[in-house]
Write a structure and sequence with these properties.
Tc1-like transposase DDE domain-containing protein; mainly alpha; nucleic acid binding; 54% helix
């Protein structure tokens, strides 16, 4: 049995014997006839949560917490205060970048029967109840 391996050999062996990742959400989506699409790595402009997280981080930076308990409390309070318009703006910003990338690739812009934002938010900007109870 060989006891000495180079890093390159170990990486090659690990890659060769890697097990595929099985995620419950992928299986549930497939079982319901859906296919999950993934955004490319290192593209925060395609992730609405990145905008919201940036808002929270900026507010924390302006008034930093001194303990983990204080940080936890501040984050929870901040996320409760983030407005619907911030979320809508984040979704619209993502849509802008999606369209920009699709046009660059020679595809048409993102279209659909309804705007993503209007499917989640009412005309007054209130979050619609989108929870499905089993």
């Amino acid at each position: 049995m060989r006891l000495s391996w180079s890093i390159g050999e170990l990486l090659l062996l690990a890659k060769r014997h890697r097990q595929p990742s099985d995620y419950v959400c992928v299986e549930l989506a497939a079982h319901s006839g859906h296919k999950l699409l993934y955004t490319p790595p290192y593209h925060p402009e395609l992730q609405p949560i990145e905008v919201v997280w940036a808002v929270a981080k900026n507010r924390i930076a302006a008034n930093p917490a001194t303990t983990l308990q204080e940080l936890d409390a501040k984050l929870k309070a901040l996320f409760d205060l983030i407005s619907t318009s911030t979320w809508v703006g984040a979704f619209k910003n993502v849509r802008h970048f999606e369209d920009k990338y699709l046009v660059k690739k020679g595809h048409s812009q993102v279209t659909g029967s309804e705007d993503v934002c209007s499917s989640f938010f009412s005309a007054r900007g209130e979050l619609k109840n989108r929870l499905v109870h089993a």
